[in-house]
Structure formats: C-alpha cells, structure tokens
Amino acid sequence: MPLAFVSAQSDAEQATATRLDDPTADALFFAVISKQFTIQQPDTLSLIYEHLPWTKQQFQTGQHLGEISLPLVVLNSNGSERQVPATLGIRAACTGGTECLSASIVGDFLGDGTTQTHSAAEIGISLSLDFSPSPISSRPHAFVGVQVPLVVTHLNDAPYFAPHLDNPRPTFVVDALGFTPASFLHRPIGVSPIAAPFSASFGNHGDNDNGPDARPLPAVAAYLTFGIDGETLASAPLPQPPPP
C-alpha cells in the first residue's frame, strides 16, 4: 500500500500527503524490505517512487533529473552506529534515454565534517528508471526504483532477532551488515530500522518541462521504518481540514 502526495509547486515548498483516491495526487511512494542476496532473511530496502508528471523519456547531458534523501548509517568498529544523512542525485550522463542515467551520492561518510561524493554503486546502492502506465494513469510515466542494503545488528536492534507473536521464527537470524565499500570507507553502510525521514524531488519532465536547467520539485516527504515482523511502515501527516 503506497502513500500518495501532491508535488510542490516550487523548491521552497514541501510535498503534501493526501488520500490515495485524491484525483490531484501525482506521486506515490512504495517501500518494502526484501531478500536480494540471502535466503535466510531480508537484506535490502526497496523503494519505488511513481511520478505522474515525469513522462519524457529522453534527456540531455547533465540534466538534473531528481534528488532522493537517504538516512544511512555506518557501522563503527565497536558495533555502534553513526548516522549519515545522504542525498542521491540523479542526472543524465549523456543525451538519450534511461541508459544515460547516472547516480551519485553525497554525504559525510568518513565522519570528518566534510561532504564526499561517490557513485551510488560505490556504497552498494542501485537505481533504476522505468516508464509504464499504472492504475492511476494510463499514460506511461516514471517509476524510480532505489535499492539500499540493510544494517541490522544484535547489538543495536535486538528485538528483530527475537521470536514474535505472528511468527515464531525471528525476522533476522544473523547481523545484516549492509555493504562495505572497498575503495574509501571500509566499514558497513546501509539503512537501519530507526524511523527516519525519506524525501524525493523530481523535475517536471513532461509537457510543461522547463528545460535541462530546471530544479527538481519536492514530490515525496515521509517517515519510514520496519517492524520486528518485517513489515515496512511509512507515514506522512495529512493536512488539517479548514475549520467549519
């Protein structure tokens, strides 16, 4: 079950959560933890951003296509975690279609007070872009997929390793150690179960496209976590109705 949003009209505003049946909703946010590389337990957070205004499938070199916030953690040598708010930037590395997609990520990964920029693949994050119709729009539009490794450990997240009422088998059996970059960090990095904000901004790459220099506009703003049973939980406050 996704969350629905109405995209902001300027980069100074926030995306607004709304009901799934709201005809003005133009962005949907899906999230689930899943198994990618193991058979015992989940190891990946999979995110999907469905953006109805993004219909153009051809891009120009250097075009700024979107930004996605990712609240990552680095697992320290003593087992503690260090929070690393990061931003995944999506650009076109060439003139063409989805084969030109380029993803870089910015954050203080080293914990030295400076920001570093790396390719998404360097820290184990994968990105995809597909176009297709959906139940809320028959016109092909963008589906942006992001997959991030999980960091879940006995030391920091003990309840996830215990049996629970719905399932006597724990969701996690051994520590999920994310991804360890070999080129610069040499420590596990990924997302943890801690409830944290996830947001995304995308350009209006449709009939009213403002060109290659247009800034992405906020489309999603939610909090995300997952329970000890493995269920992913996303939430965003609905606007207060006007007084009678």
SSE layout:
Elements: E1 3-6, E2 16-18, E3 27-34, E4 44-51, E5 64-75, E6 81-92, E7 101-107, E8 116-119, E9 126-134, E10 137-149, E11 151-152, E12 176-177, E13 189-190, E14 196-202, E15 217-226, E16 232-235
Antiparallel strand pairs: 1-2, 1-3, 3-4, 4-10, 5-6, 5-13, 5-14, 6-7, 7-8, 9-10, 11-12, 14-15, 15-16
Shape: globular
Mean pLDDT: 90
Q: State the low-pLDDT regions, or none.
A: none
H/E series: EEEEEEEEEEEEEEEE
How many helices in DSSP terms?
A: 0
Query: Which radius of gyration do the C-alpha atoms yield?
Result: 19 Å
Distance between the termini: 31 Å
Strand-pairing-aware structural class: mainly beta
Tell how many strands the DSSP assignment holds. Answer: 16
Percent of residues in β-strands: 35-45%
Number of discrete domains: 1
Helix content: under 10%
Biggest sheet features = 8 strands, antiparallel
